[in-house]
Amino acid sequence: MKRYQALADDIAASIRDGLLRPGQRLPSVRRTSTARGVSPATVFQAYYLLEARGLVRSRARSGYYVSSAPPALPPEPDAASQPDGESRPVDVSELVFEVLESAMARDVVPLGSAFPSPQLFPLRKLGRAMASAAVHLDPWSTVDELTPGKVALRRQIALRYRIDGLQVGADAIVITNGALEALNLCVTALTQPGDAVLVESPCFYATLQSLERHGLRAIEVPTHPRDGIDLDAMDAAIGRHRPKACWLMTNFQNPLGSAMPDEKKRALVERLTRHGVPLIEDDVYGELYFGERRPTPAKAYDRDGLVMHCASFSKTLAPGYRIGWVAPGRYLREVARAKLTATLSTCVPAQLALADYLAQGGYDRHLRRLRTALLAQQGQYLEAVARHFPEGTRVTRPAGGYFLWIELPEGADALRVYRQAADMGISIAPGPMFSVRRGFGHCLRLNCGHPLDERVEAALATLGRLAAASAGIA
Amino acid sequence: MKRYQALADDIAASIRDGLLRPGQRLPSVRRTSTARGVSPATVFQAYYLLEARGLVRSRARSGYYVSSAPPALPPEPDAASQPDGESRPVDVSELVFEVLESAMARDVVPLGSAFPSPQLFPLRKLGRAMASAAVHLDPWSTVDELTPGKVALRRQIALRYRIDGLQVGADAIVITNGALEALNLCVTALTQPGDAVLVESPCFYATLQSLERHGLRAIEVPTHPRDGIDLDAMDAAIGRHRPKACWLMTNFQNPLGSAMPDEKKRALVERLTRHGVPLIEDDVYGELYFGERRPTPAKAYDRDGLVMHCASFSKTLAPGYRIGWVAPGRYLREVARAKLTATLSTCVPAQLALADYLAQGGYDRHLRRLRTALLAQQGQYLEAVARHFPEGTRVTRPAGGYFLWIELPEGADALRVYRQAADMGISIAPGPMFSVRRGFGHCLRLNCGHPLDERVEAALATLGRLAAASAGIA
């Protein structure tokens, strides 16, 4: 983060905490410059940024004043989705590829990106662990433990499971090329082409791509933006379609940000166990909680080995290292064999580097900092949405992760907003990406994993205007 | 390599070159010790090893003498395989998994392994490149160029193509998690479940696993141990079965070691182009040639973008890094998208490390050393097979790579030899692993990628005895 952004965030926090009150004058640029030991230019930039965020206003020849009141936030979405309960072959990929390809350039404002800012991660410290692992690599370690992955890393992951109250041994884990491979291996282990899989509605587009790749049918189940999938609807869909698996994100679901309460997770596992339907649990955001403690994975309630818990370090520690894993329960053998025939093994020095980093300690300290940053950014983005988006907009307040799910007013067309924004160098993720029915035409997902600087603020203002125009609001 | 092994190899070379002649006495241990600047114990070990290899004999109280003549090598296999031309669903995996799992322990003699000794690779120098790449990682490099892979590495690969006379630009390459992922992506891009693919007979078991994983049928085509697939038989199979792809290893095929001459490759591509059948070219051993220059990939003759050239650094430079690639010709878009949905991206620091190593130069020097070592080892293994295997054995002399294909005498059962050897801590790769028909029941593949020390020599002697017993030879 740049110096002026840090300063602006500090002042914003003082405003939120009431240390600076509405109408109060900010200290002069010179005084702040002296007090903080930064240049006057930096202070100016910080004040401009606060003004862009609507937190302060400038008065000619008089300085900057705290705005009278922060804008009220738009209401939350308050109803579960209502998919039609049909089973469908999956064919979403063209749209998804188009959106992903348009979002990947460095100069695009990455509101549609699936990644938080890479500057939030301890890449230098990790780099030193990687340096040590690579220079001291035991040659024989390149040919043993190939398919399950390095036992040193599996032990560290098992230790984290233990701390979270789960009994998952190192031998019950397979290391993968990111969580995406883990999830694909679960699908490979459980299904044959033509089978059906239950998913949330909306669900992560990579889930749909995976099902399409495997020639599967998807059944969207009603899902609430706060607490996730509707269990009764799930029961009914299982009875009707006899799916081979249920694929859910239990914690801070992408795109909704929904999190299933612990009791609901317990009930979920009980019901799936009764039906004999395995759960593919995608839990890549669980560590990014804003509350007191990590939300439990559904895996914690699994007695029969039916929950295949998939996670990774890509969103929490080591973007670009591509290290994920799966604890596949009773399907361990099938998953290990699928891994062997898919990619054989995962980059050995990267595995050893992460094992070494985790063994040194420091991961939890980093996670605390990361969560604090993401929570602060969520607040800033919510306020920016309040400032810029039209009346009738709804937006989620997830208790973790870095996505906001926005319902635009009736009549707005998220795909049209997406296309217009793309032409202006702004990426968003339109709702229909997240549905096999192409539902959620008036919704979009915003990434708030990047610091809210002027460029992002301006992009959000543009999006708000495009959304209003699309909804026919002047 | 240990010091005594290097000394033994030197002396063996002198014997082969005629500098030491049959019947001649070796210098005394003391003299060699002084001349070479090594300990007497090292010289003793070297002489023991030469004796174990049958190159010298000891006479009581008199010293070591060069054996009267090196044993004549067994003849080469001299006929192409004769599969029945049927198209079959693939179901080889149980046997293959069993063999691979039994071969993976560190204490097993790795004659069935698919990897050469990891000590043949510059892992420390690579480690330093990795250290630098990881410590200086640009955070944004973890989120851009995700799916095709880092352009710095793709440029280095394109440069090597250019040196070998191929026009393949950096933009025409997708980086993968080893060649295995590259090959799987090609299959995903080209086929639907139930389609048929042409393969060699015998063919690499991972090919069969990939076809099984994708729900495909395999058609084995007659293949000669010296020059590869029979083009007329291929034509006939294409006419009969209308396969969606042809998957071949054109250079130093695994397991045969066969290499298609350039003119044959040109004809191969012409014929496939006429049929409109794409070629998945698995070329992971092409750099391991013993001749004057790298054998040309079939890709060199491709005018229509129908050849998908797959390779990796796993066997030539960087085992365990899991960096491969594919130049998929006209299927670039389909392959890139398949990569995105399979594993999204490949470990970024590992890609940058290899790009850096390649840019520094030194890869070709390493390759020259590696080829020299592999050629020397092939000679030693061939002589050991001559010493220990029964009359009627045939063995290939590949012009590159590190596999020998052995035809045991009529009546021998390679699966039985494999099981008996496994119980004694020796791994081999029995012929039926390499065939969808479970053919090649009297054949086996030997890995000569590990230095031939006493333990390997003893293992080869054991294998020879087991083979003789299995063939009913006293």
TrEMBL record, chains A, B:
Coiled coil: none annotated. It comes from the Bacteria. GO terms for molecular function: DNA binding; DNA-binding transcription factor activity; pyridoxal phosphate binding; transaminase activity. Residues 67-88 are annotated as: Disordered. It holds the Pfam family Aminotran_1_2. Keywords: Aminotransferase, DNA-binding, Pyridoxal phosphate, Transcription, Transcription regulation, Transferase. PROSITE patterns: HTH_GNTR. InterPro entries: Aminotransferase_I/II_large (IPR004839), HTH_trans_reg/aminotransferase (IPR051446), PyrdxlP-dep_Trfase (IPR015424), PyrdxlP-dep_Trfase_major (IPR015421), PyrdxlP-dep_Trfase_small (IPR015422), Tscrpt_reg_HTH_GntR (IPR000524), WH-like_DNA-bd_sf (IPR036388), WH_DNA-bd_sf (IPR036390). Residues 1-69 form the HTH gntR-type domain. In the C-terminal section; belongs to the class-I pyridoxal-phosphate-dependent aminotransferase family. PANTHER family: HTH-TYPE TRANSCRIPTIONAL REGULATORY PROTEIN GABR, TRANSCRIPTIONAL REGULATORY PROTEIN. This is PLP-dependent aminotransferase family protein.
